[in-house]
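sry for the spam today, last one i promise. struct tokens for design, 360 residues
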């Protein structure tokens, strides 16, 4: 019987070689590896020269792994071989001159960059599945999401009430509304800012990805202004600065909390996301300036009332006014502004960089 060579088509990926042997109804298929890189193929089948014994040998460019996957169908024999080192080969065979029976398999053919993209897509899919399965493993995920959703909803309603109340009063009373902001909205602001302490607790419990430090600066900074400067000094409560501080705080929160609520249910509204990650740019410095004005206005009042002053030994004078602590706090405020401004800038970059990557 005449021994012939079948037509063989090939393609590669970074880790594998695919061979397609054009032999129908193949039987007695014998595929073996000699050394680390020479494949021997022998089979009985129907090829270009009819029913015959067909065989070929291929000496690969680089070593391959010993296990060979083979599948014979009515039309062809498919062979998959793993490369020993996962890298792109510039050709299939050690000899530069390609054997006549060998041709590219255009059904499977990819050039190096396309194969890399395919590899990356596969890796991303595997990562996504492993992240999803990790997430699915958390039995309390529903409870955590439910708690966060409710927390954000309550804060959203609280700050919306303050914002709407102040806006309506501004339209009706004009500038006069500045002076009784505290008396009309303080109870709700106390409630919202006390609840906001949870924003420091949540990252500690691993419920949100927020940094603990930025959240602490934010909550502690506002609560000093609300509970110490406005809350403890009656003289501060009817000043116009209360209006500006409360208005600036609530202007961001009526967008930030609904943004978080949507995040809890896996939804994202482009405009809301943009507002959450952009409004702080003018509002944050304005807020810090308004808070600084409130602190400066309170200094003479603390000096006069001696509230929170620290008694000193008589040799050093009467007592140390709390206004000195507040002067130090003023410096800390601008340091806090810098830290949180940088944090928010990074969050914005991260959000828009990762979104751009998802689009392409
Ligand atoms: C006595 C000691 C005193 C020490 C302090 C001294 C310094 C004081 C200086 C204080 C200056 C304060 C000035 C300030 O009060 C002025 C104003 O506020 S003016 C108004 C403008 N303000 C703002 O715009 C700031 C608003 N606040 C914030 O943005 C946050 O509080 C802040 C911590 C600053 C940043 O937020 P965060 O880090 O959380 O960023 P993200 O929104 O991107 O969230 C990160 C990821 O976590 C998820 N997340 C966060 N929280 C929740 C939640 N409640 N529910 C659900 N999910 C949440 C969020 O979705 C993000 O997830 P992902 O990355 O998957 O998108």
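last one done:
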């Amino acid at each position: 019987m005449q021994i012939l060579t079948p037509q063989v088509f090939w393609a590669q990926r970074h880790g594998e070689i695919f061979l397609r042997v054009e032999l129908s109804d193949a039987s007695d298929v014998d595929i073996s590896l000699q050394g680390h890189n020479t494949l021997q193929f022998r089979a009985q089948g129907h090829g270009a020269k009819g029913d015959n014994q067909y065989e070929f040998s291929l000496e690969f460019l680089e070593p391959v792994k010993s296990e060979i996957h083979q599948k014979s169908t009515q039309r062809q024999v498919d062979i998959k071989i793993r490369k020993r080192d996962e890298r792109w080969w510039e050709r299939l065979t050690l000899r530069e001159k390609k054997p006549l029976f060998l041709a590219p398999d255009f059904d499977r053919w990819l050039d190096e960059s396309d194969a890399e993209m395919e590899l990356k897509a596969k890796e991303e899919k595997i990562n996504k599945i492993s992240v999803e399965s990790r997430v699915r493993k958390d039995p309390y995920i529903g409870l955590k999401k439910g708690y966060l959703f409710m927390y954000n909803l309550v804060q959203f309603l609280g700050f919306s009430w303050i914002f709407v109340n102040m806006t309506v009063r501004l339209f009706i009373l004009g500038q006069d509304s500045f002076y009784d902001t505290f008396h009309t909205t303080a109870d709700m602001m106390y409630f919202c800012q006390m609840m906001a302490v949870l924003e420091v607790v949540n990252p500690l419990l691993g419920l949100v990805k927020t940094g603990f430090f930025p959240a602490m600066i934010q909550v502690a900074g506002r609560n000093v202004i609300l509970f110490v400067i406005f809350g403890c000094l009656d003289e501060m409560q009817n000043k116009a600065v209360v209006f500006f501080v409360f208005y600036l705080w609530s202007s961001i929160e009526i967008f930030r909390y609904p943004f978080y609520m949507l995040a809890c249910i896996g939804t994202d509204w482009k405009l809301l996301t943009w507002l959450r990650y952009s409004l702080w740019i003018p509002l944050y410095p304005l807020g810090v300036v308004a808070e600084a004005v409130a602190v400066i206005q309170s200094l003479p009042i603390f000096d006069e009332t001696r509230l929170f002053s620290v008694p000193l030994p008589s040799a050093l004078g009467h007592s140390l006014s709390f206004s000195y602590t507040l002067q130090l706090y003023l410096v800390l405020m601008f340091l806090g502004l810098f830290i949180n401004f940088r944090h928010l800038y990074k969050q914005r970059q991260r959000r828009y960089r990762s979104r751009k990557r998802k689009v392409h």
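The chain is about 55% helix and 20% strand. ok im logging off now
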